[in-house]
Design brief:
The complex is a heterodimer of chains A (about 120) and B (about 110). In chain A, about 0% of the residues lie in helices and about 50% in strands. With about 120 residues, chain A is an all-beta fold. The N and C termini of chain A lie far apart (about 30 Å). Chain B is globular, with a radius of gyration of 13 Å. Classes of the chains: A mainly beta (about 120), B mainly beta (about 110).
Chain lengths: ~120, ~110
């Protein structure tokens, strides 16, 4: 596998709650990207962190935020959960950040269900 | 921003035949085009990629072509096998915008 891990594997929350998803990047990779994949759709880019700084963002509202730590771990936080936030959340690590074209290695994802 | 369209959405081929998936992109600044294979319940896995300074790249049964003028790129799988059955995604990375845009996916079914 890729060496990228995510936790938890599944999560159920109710509308309005907050959630934190975690990712552990491949050792030595300074970049982590987060994606939202709704059922039957392609992954949607949320944002990327490079050396603990946000390095690019997709069309997601500010209630989606992130953190990256020096030990190659990172978090995706979502506040005020909405039903449409139900999706598979994927993280991907790479050596360098955008605009480099380094290969991204995906984690197995966290399946979030919002009721 | 970038917009990536992918066709077809589903594709059925007989084992041993070829499969072709096509994508178009809108941002002329896009410079990197990876293709991912995603099996049911699993993570996307990179199968091949191409950069904007190259027109074609091949890796065994898989090839990708890029036409920068027309802003389209294609995935070609020859001698398909049942284990090629999966959803395939194209993606485009823009050098101008700091983001990666995926296509909507093609569900490939290889019939034994």
């Amino acid at each position: 596998e890729t060496g990228v891990t995510q936790s938890p594997t599944h999560l159920i929350k109710t509308r309005g709650q907050q959630v934190t998803l975690r990712c552990s990047s491949q050792s030595g990779h300074n970049t982590v990207s987060w994606y939202q994949q709704a059922l039957g759709q392609g992954p949607q880019f949320i944002f990327q962190y490079y050396r603990e700084e946000e390095n690019g963002r997709g069309n997601f509202p500010p209630r989606f935020s992130g953190l990256q730590f020096p030990n190659y771990s990172s978090e995706l936080n979502v506040n005020a959960l909405e039903l449409d936030d139900s999706a598979l959340y994927l993280c991907a690590s790479s050596l360098r950040g955008l605009p480099s074209t380094d290969t991204q290695y995906f984690g197995p994802g966290t399946r979030l269900t919002v009721l | 921003g970038e917009n990536v369209e992918q066709h077809p959405s589903t594709l059925s081929v007989q084992e041993g035949d070829s499969a072709v998936i096509k994508c178009t992109y809108s941002d002329s600044a896009s410079n990197y085009f990876p293709w991912y294979k995603q099996e049911l319940g699993k993570r996307p896995q990179l199968i091949i990629d191409i950069r904007s300074n190259v027109g074609e790249k091949k890796d065994q049964r898989i090839a990708v072509t890029l036409n920068k003028t027309a802003k389209h790129f294609s995935l070609h799988i020859t001698e398909t096998q049942p284990e090629d059955s999966a959803v395939y995604f194209c993606a485009a990375q823009s050098g101008g915008y700091q983001k990666v845009t995926f296509g909507t996916g093609t569900k490939l079914q290889v019939i034994p």
